[in-house]
Amino acid sequence: MDVSPFVAGLIAYAVSVLAAVLLVFVTYRLNTLLTSRIDEERLLLSGNRSVAIGLGSILFSQAILMRHAVFPTMVVIRDLFLRPVSWSAAVSLRSIASDERRRTVATT
């Protein structure tokens, strides 16, 4: 039994999870820098639910948008492990995966 597709999938999954977590964290920090007049962390610690709902909805929306950036990257990483190719082929594969994802989203 060949386990290389399974290992490649696990590596691609780990990279996509790390990228998504990093992007959500950076987005949260960028949001707090842009709204520096409001001390969201102090308001959260004091139990202000409206700030929690607002920040949560912003992070959730950004996570949904970032999913579309992470998915094609995961496809490219998985395919690089299964079939080693040149970098030019990898870049073209990324654009194909991105186009495929756009078509899937447009039809739903």
Features:
single chain, 108 residues, mainly alpha, elongated
Account of the 3D structure:
There is one protein chain. The protein is mostly helical and 108 residues long. It has 4 helices and no strands. Helix 1 runs antiparallel to helix 3 and helix 3 crosses helix 4. The longest helix is centred in the middle third of the chain and has 34 residues, at 49-82.
Give the overall shape. Answer: elongated
Oligomer: single chain
Instruction: Specify the biggest β-sheet.
Output: none
Low-confidence stretches: none
Class computed from helices, strands and strand pairing: mainly alpha
Order of helices and strands: HHHH
Number of helices: 4
Average predicted confidence as pLDDT: 76
Strand content: under 5%
Find the count of extended strands (DSSP E, 2+ residues).
0
The Rg value, from CA coordinates, equals 18 Å
Helix content: over 70%
Spatial gap, N to C terminus: 36 Å
Strand and helix layout:
Layout: H1 4-34, H2 40-45, H3 49-82, H4 87-107
Short summary:
This protein is 85% helix and 0% strand. It is mainly α. The longest helix has 34 residues.
